[in-house]
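Researcher: Structure prediction, please.
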Amino acid sequence: MQYSTIEVTPLTPAMGGVVAGLDLTQPLSDAQVEDLHRALEDRLVIFFREQPIDHAAHKRFANYFGGIHVAASTKPWQVPGHPEVTIIHADGASKFVAGEDWHSDMSCDAEPPLGSVLYLHTVPPVGGDTAFSNMYAAYDALSERMKAHLEGLTAVHDALVGFGGITHDGMKLPHSSHPVIRTHPATGRKAIYVNKGFTTHIEGLPRAESDALLGYLFDHVKHPLFQCRFSWAPHSIAFWDNRCAQHSAIWDYFPQVRSGYRVQIRGDLPR
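Model: Predicted structure follows.
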């Protein structure tokens, strides 16, 4: 794909692209935003290097793509004075890290975020990559009989699974029902929309059948042919489409520090 204001270097054939030619510390032009929309649709996740953004620039970038999604379940990790910004931090005292298993961000919400913009200012000298997987490709690789079986099924996504049962100050964590196969509202393509991080069961099936089917899909979506993997450097940014991509943060750097901030972009009701 050709762009008028940016250069995009593909990371793998399946997905991912490194964007050059922009300064995200400054406002973007309409043409630049349009190119980024096209790059995201084409590559599903796009990356930026050497972008030392502050909270204002981070939020400004997210607003180019549909406004900001503030998830109630992220309240304990929100930046004081900036509830739209979530702290993503791990160090030698951490007992867990955010996003360690394959998932689509906040799929437990009634209207999950369109996408996520993660900025890391501090990264370990080695490790701490994020892996991404293409849910269009995962769907396309299914047999026609399996596609027909999954069509019309819905599954429950529960924040209690994603957050390991952690609650704060009596906060009620969300759970929602979404299609197992969703259609992307911009591209019209079908994608698998169940994930190990949040999905508990498929509705209307016996539990054993649901568990077996979900187990198959959870394994299927992480096939290497669907993936790309991003190696972070200080002041890098990843922007991914939660509607058609899953990701997993690899915690192989303990006790080193990996730290930054995430802003999520308002989405719609999966259909």
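Model: The longest helix spans residues 30-43.
Researcher: Thanks, that helps.
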